[in-house]
Amino acid sequence: MDVRRRATTTKLSPAPPANGGPRYPLKPIRTIDHRKNSSSPSPQASDALPLPLYLTNGIFFTLFFSLAYFLLQRWREKIRTSTPLHGVTLSEMAAILSLIASFIYLLGFFGIDFVQSFITRSADDGFDENDHQFIVEEEEERRRVPCGVSLDCPLPIAPKIKESKLIFTTPLPEEDEEIIKSIVDGTIPSYSLESKLGDCKRAAFIRREALQRITGRSVEGLPLEGFDYESILGQCCEMPVGYVQIPVGIAGPLLLDGVEYSVPMATTEGCLVASTNRGCKAIYACGGASSVLLRDGMTRAPVVRFGTAKRAAELKFFMEDPANFDTLSVIFNRSSRFGRLQSIQCAIAGKNLYMRFTCSTGDAMGMNMVSKGVQNVLDFLQNDFPDMDVIGISGNFCSDKKPAAVNWIEGRGKSVVCEAIISEEVVSKVLKTNIPALVELNMLKNLAGSAVAGALGGFNAHASNIVSAVFIATGQDPAQNIESSHCITMMEAVNDGRDLHVSVSMPSIEVGTVGGGTQLASQSACLNLLGVKGASKEAPGSNSRLLASIVAGSVLAGELSLMSALAAGQLVKSHMKYNRSSKDISKTAA
């Protein structure tokens, strides 16, 4: 057997595993010639003379430039004396031949080797970056013969592969491979996979593989299995490639209006669930909390423009005239059996008019519902105000997903106030502090401190922490945490200082129990845990109103516990104990 022959790449199919598992073919890859690692070095230009390299180079450098100078001087004299240039003497002929020889040497030493070094380097770099398959060569086949025959078979030198760039994937069906290549090439848009394939999970898988190949980065830690991708099609998320796991903890029982609730909180912040749970314990020990729903109405405010401010004012008077409200209500209410127009508030800025519509939305959060009603009214107004130019159906006077004084003052969604009276004994034993310290801290931190900061609706300790955690767990819009977290926390000593009255007033909690993310399996389970899953058939809107009250009650518990930890100086200690870990979670996930 000729063991010195050139190694060539072969396409192999490994034998089936003993357990009868799947058998995947290895894809062919380019040939690597390993003879250059073991054969004798090729002749170099510097071998022309048996002298040290620096002397050889010096001789040919001197020879080249000396001969070039000699020939130029000779040609100059011929031109001056009008002698034909083609008439060459013996000395000139020798000089020309020597010049050519020295040029060939210099080109071989500095030119060819220099270019070849770059070609070799770029080829090696290209292989390190792009070849992500294992090399299977004929030498490996020869190693399977008896040991005595293969003792002198050299092992191939494995190329160095940069592990940070490697993405190992299971071989895919040929049809999927073609689709992935088309996405990478840009011939098939990624967003069209669901409609073309008719299989949402397969579309997510193919999109995920294409993403990894385009970016050169792995998304191995992002799970794909175990999710119903059909449920999000057209309503929750576009172009999915997986889903994010967020742990859900339970705080409670929260005793609110005489009913116990186990509150689900999706968060990655240590201490948050534990702290809220301690607040629930304190509230429960004192007979629970009570809540009152003040308002329930979602808003949308389009902006329209006229040629003059006078015309804008005329529409303002028309919209705010009570005699026109019934007509506008009939037009607005056509779009939904739950959406009912409640009020219209207008604001004018020059020749621009902002109209803030407020309507009830049943158990839905209601943004789409109110937007459809507003569009109906705008179409109707176009008949009497043909010069009205609708700039946008949302003019930020709503105001959605932004801190705004109009929400803080007028409210948006559900406006709730929740209160509880905590006894001195519970404050001491459960919350580990005292009533005067809590009252003073609340005044200096939540009231005066927030005023110094210029806060807008942020007169609280951490209402957004609890609101965000409950929102994520129950499928609400996390971005609406901004206005939903508007809250003022009040604390006051009552009953001659023996008890603490604590309350939270939240004017714009925007929640729903139908639509959006509430219909996903995990979020639906959390809503079911609270007893507010889906729409209420007996009293439409009651489930979403109850959810808003639960959010406010949870915020009350969170505020009470955190303020107590701050008053007792326990915040840093508790976070160092529960919110720090020496375990490398990334390695665990991998």
UniProtKB/TrEMBL annotation:
The source's superkingdom equals Eukaryota
Q: Which Gene3D superfamilies match?
A: 3-hydroxy-3-methylglutaryl-coenzyme A Reductase, Chain A, domain 2, HMGR, N-terminal domain, Hydroxymethylglutaryl-CoA reductase, class I/II, NAD/NADP-binding domain
Stored Pfam families: HMG-CoA_red
* Functional pathway: Metabolic intermediate biosynthesis; (R)-mevalonate biosynthesis; (R)-mevalonate from acetyl-CoA: step 3/3
User: Does Transmembrane helix appear among the keywords?
Assistant: yes
The answer to whether the entry has keyword NADP is yes
- List its EC numbers: 1.1.1.34
Q: Where in the cell is it found?
A: Endoplasmic reticulum membrane
SUPFAM superfamilies according to UniProt: NAD-binding domain of HMG-CoA reductase (SSF55035), Substrate-binding domain of HMG-CoA reductase (SSF56542)
The entry lists its GO molecular-function terms as: hydroxymethylglutaryl-CoA reductase (NADPH) activity
Please write the reaction equations for the catalytic activity of this protein.
(R)-mevalonate + 2 NADP(+) + CoA = (3S)-3-hydroxy-3-methylglutaryl-CoA + 2 NADPH + 2 H(+)
**Which PROSITE patterns does the record match to this protein?**
HMG_COA_REDUCTASE_1, HMG_COA_REDUCTASE_2, HMG_COA_REDUCTASE_3, HMG_COA_REDUCTASE_4
Query: Where are the membrane-spanning stretches?
Result: 51-72, 93-112
The biological processes this protein is annotated with in GO are: coenzyme A metabolic process; isoprenoid biosynthetic process; sterol biosynthetic process
Query: Gene Ontology terms, cellular component aspect?
Result: endoplasmic reticulum membrane; peroxisomal membrane
Chain positions covered by the region annotation Disordered: 1-45
Main subcellular localisation: endoplasmic reticulum
Entry keyword set: Endoplasmic reticulum, Glycoprotein, Isoprene biosynthesis, Membrane, NADP, Oxidoreductase, Transmembrane, Transmembrane helix
**UniProt membrane topology term:** Multi-pass membrane protein
The UniProt entry's sequence similarity note says: Belongs to the HMG-CoA reductase family.
Name used for this protein in its record: 3-hydroxy-3-methylglutaryl coenzyme A reductase
The organism is Thalictrum thalictroides (Rue-anemone)
